[in-house]
Design brief:
The complex is a heterodimer of chains A (299) and B (480). Chain A has 299 residues and is α/β, with parallel strands linked by helices. Chain A is built from nine helices and twelve strands. Chain B has two domains: 298 residues, UDP-N-acetylmuramoyl-L-alanine:D-glutamate ligase; 129 residues, Mur ligase, C-terminal domain (Protein-Tyrosine Phosphatase, Chain A, Alpha-Beta Complex). Classes of the chains: A alpha/beta (299), B alpha/beta (480).
Chain lengths: 299, 480
């Protein structure tokens, strides 16, 4: 229990556009926030903010959450978001904690230019922009963050995000692509607002971030520094250890063997080479196997 | 004799692979690399052509149902019944059945293909019939987006020559009927309005999740959020969409020649409600199907609403292939179809019935939890993250596990056992033991004192491994 918590303290979580911006488990971030608050006797309520919702729903927001979306979902909320840009900016400036994942992270930036060249306006809270790319950056990701230590997640995006002047990334990539696959940065932190490409979802395996969001929200609400009592994290540590040990996406070994990903693009020559390589591979295997059989029968 | 080399090589690999116990796809992969046109040259000769089955959930069981119905009608059917649904899986299955000269003793092929492989397959081997089951969140680490998956299936529909059978309740798939470049006629299967709520589509997925009951939470606002029915109600039903689409096209179709014919074809596709198979009633395991104004009832061996919808899909498909087959007899045969291995398959071990339930994606997992009530049952969950399972664990958070709160989970296993246990913890579900090693986990489950039946929810590679482990303990039907 948090000490000296005024009776009736309740955190209001603003969940941005869950209908469109909730691809693959972003719900888990909301669940973790609510449970980790509830387990400490802090009640929460959630506003699911959809397009055309009343601006009144933004009032008394303590934590802002936004998830990833499909391109179509992003296009659908992009316009509506302009309507709430100013109140959101005021919240972030005032230290309201926020977690924006993937598509929401991009929309909090200045703009997103798709690979086809269309420009999608963001709401410019983060001074950054994103360029759509031809390839997706996919896989298990490990990030070293100065504020949160090691972050473990799963990225899946084709946009490459570049931070503008004066912005600090959330952390540096240890495994994975991060913001753009080039400069080693991942995510962004501005005041208490965090942007990131990490799905997984982020909060279950990185509860220190969840607790940061909750503690910042309470501190801001009660106007004094709140420290949250620790929770048992044995399962979390084990899940983190396993996640770190897993291959990023598919085994490297497979792509180096003599079959390439796209047979239709290979020349006749390379196909012949790969056939020979395959035969050699299997021939060796077969001989080895027969040899082994021979050895066994000798014993 | 052209294929002899590939066949001998493939069989050799098959022999080696079976020695180490498994690997249904490897021989196919080898032959695919050595002779890329192997499958095409054999399958393109089949007199009744190829039936392609694709979609997110239900491919294996539906393919099995179609194959059994067609076999019952006297056709010789070739199928890939191992659930290995890449091109290599099809080739592996071919290797087992072709003669050395490369001829296949079959009239028709019924093949399930993974969404991405279905596209490349249909480019080489043009299917005469294609059945598209559904599009849900699945393996987004491979496909990126659901909309992208829908586009893949649209391409498969375009490559189909005769009939495409589509799930009317899936708006992403239903949009395919408006495609201008469709050679095939569109037919539908679906579910009656009063059964819609049992059948979540992907868009209804996110808000069907309920948070654990906790008195400190105020759920008033949460309940103000749109519920399942709202989503279903607000998303235009296919029927309306189809109607509007047809009207627009009637006007647009004033042009000449080919465009006109195309527009007419689209209008026909949208308006064509004849030959539609509708699941009209479901009470327990008794299902009624409506076709051409007549109702056909049967008791189904298949369990779960999703499998009953798959049965409707199979019926619509077989009806399209063999229109003269008596529907009442088809429905009787449908009642006898059992689900495919590992998809609700029951094995008895030491007097304890174990039900293996394959779960691959959030939609499938949620439907499976609904279809197999947890009361009075031991539950085990085994989650692997190999390439075939999907590397990303995010999907576990799109499933709600509250239905397991009362009984708890006896054993959590698989490579990602701790991820799963953590997920259960956040839904306030007790899990007694976490053992990543599947063999140890299985022993732990079987060592439980009372002889309660057990449900084992498992991802694809975990299911294959569990079946091998179980084969040492009981009679497990070999899947070849």
């Amino acid at each position: 229990m948090v000490r000296n918590l005024p009776v009736g303290t309740r955190l209001r979580i603003l969940n941005l556009y869950p209908r469109q911006m909730n691809i693959y488990g972003d719900f888990g971030n909301l669940l973790v926030l609510r449970q980790r608050a509830g387990w400490r006797g802090i009640s929460t309520e959630v506003t699911h903010f959809e397009t055309d919702a009343s601006l009144k729903q933004l009032r008394n927001t303590d934590i802002i959450l936004g998830g990833g979306g499909q391109d179509s979902g992003q296009a659908a909320v992009q316009k509506d978001m302009q309507r709430i840009a100013r109140p959101l900016r005021n919240l972030v400036s005032a230290g309201c904690p926020a977690l924006l994942v993937c598509g929401s992270y991009q929309l909090f930036g200045n703009y997103f230019k798709t690979f086809e060249g269309d420009v999608v306006e963001g709401i410019g809270i983060f001074n950054l922009h994103t360029l759509g790319g031809p390839e997706r950056m996919i896989g298990n990701t490990v990030v070293n963050s100065p504020d949160f230590g090691e972050l473990i997640g799963y990225e899946n995006h084709s946009g490459k995000t570049y931070l503008g002047a004066g912005l600090e990334p959330l952390g540096r990539v240890i495994t994975g692509s991060g913001n753009n696959g080039l400069d080693g940065s991942e995510g962004v932190r501005l005041n208490n607002a965090l942007g990131t490409y990490l799905h997984g979802p982020l909060l279950p395996k990185n509860p220190q971030v969840a607790d940061f969001l909750l503690a910042s929200a309470l501190s801001r609400k009660l106007d004094r520094t709140i420290e949250l009592p620790p929770l048992d994290n044995a399962l979390t540590l084990q899940a983190r250890a396993v996640a770190k040990s897993r291959p990023r996406y598919r085994l490297k070994l497979l792509s180096t063997l003599p079959f390439s990903k796209n047979p239709s693009h290979r020349s006749y020559h390379s196909r012949a080479v790969s056939s020979v390589a395959w035969l050699a591979l299997w021939g060796t295997g077969l001989l080895g196997f027969l040899g082994l059989l021979g050895k066994l029968s000798d014993v | 004799m052209a294929h002899s080399f590939s066949i001998i090589l493939g069989r050799l690999v098959q022999g080696l692979a079976s020695l180490r116990g498994g690997g249904s796809a490897l021989p196919g992969l080898v032959v695919e690399k050595v002779e890329p046109s192997f499958a095409a040259s054999i399958l393109n000769k089949l007199p009744a052509g190829v039936v392609l089955v694709s979609g997110t959930n239900g491919k294996t069981t539906t393919t099995k149902a179609i194959s059994e119905l067609l076999t019952g009608l006297g056709l010789k059917v070739f199928t890939n019944n191992t659930g290995s649904n890449f091109m290599r899986g099809v080739i592996s299955a071919l290797l087992r059945q072709v003669s050395l000269s490369g001829s296949l003793d079959a009239d028709i092929a019924v093949l399930e293909l993974d969404e991405a492989h279905a596209v490349s397959f249909s480019e080489i081997i043009r299917p005469r019939y294609t059945l598209l089951l559904n599009v849900m969140r699945d393996q987004l680490d491979r496909f990126g987006e659901i909309d992208y998956t829908a586009r893949l299936l649209t391409a498969v529909a375009r490559n189909t020559s005769t009939v495409v059978i589509i799930n009317r309740e899936d708006s992403r798939l239903a949009a395919i009927a408006q495609e201008a470049n469709l050679d095939a006629t569109v037919r539908w299967f679906g579910v009656a309005n009063n059964l819609q709520s049992l059948l979540p589509n992907d868009d209804a997925l996110y808000n069907g999740l309920e948070l654990p009951s906790d008195t400190s939470h105020d759920d008033a606002l949460l309940h103000a959020a749109p519920r399942d029915d709202d989503v279903l109600g607000s998303s235009p039903r296919v029927g309306h969409q189809a109607h509007n689409g047809a009207q627009t096209l009637d006007k647009a179709g004033q042009g000449q020649g080919k465009d006109n014919a195309r527009a007419l074809n689209i209008a026909n596709n949208l308006n064509n409600t004849s030959h539609t198979v509708i699941l009209s009633a479901l009470t327990g395991s008794h299902a009624s199907f409506e076709l051409e104004g007549r109702h056909y009832s049967t008791k189904l061996a298949l369990e779960g609403i999703y499998n009953v919808v798959n049965a409707a899909a199979a019926l619509a498909t077989v009806h399209a292939i063999v229109p003269q087959a008596p529907v009442d007899e088809l429905v009787v045969a449908l009642g006898r179809v059992r689900s495919a291995f590992g998809r609700g398959e029951v094995l008895e071990v030491q007097g304890r019935p174990l039900k293996l339930i394959l779960v691959k994606n959030p939609g499938g997992f949620r439907l499976a939890l609904k279809a197999h009530p947890a009361a009075g049952v031991l539950t085990m969950i085994a989650i692997n993250d190999d390439y075939a399972d999907g590397r990303d664990m995010s999907w576990l958070y799109d499933v709600g596990f509250q239905s397991l709160q009362a009984e708890g989970v006896a054993v959590v296993s698989g490579v990602r056992a701790f991820d799963m246990a953590l997920r259960l913890c956040y839904d306030d579900v007790e899990c007694a033991t976490v053992l990543p090693n599947l063999s140890e986990a299985l022993d732990e489950l079987l060592a439980q004192k009372d002889n309660k039946p057990a449900h084992i929810y498992c991802t694809y590679t975990a299911m294959l491994r569990l079946r091998r482990l179980l084969a040492a303990k009981t009679d497990v039907p070999q899947v070849r």
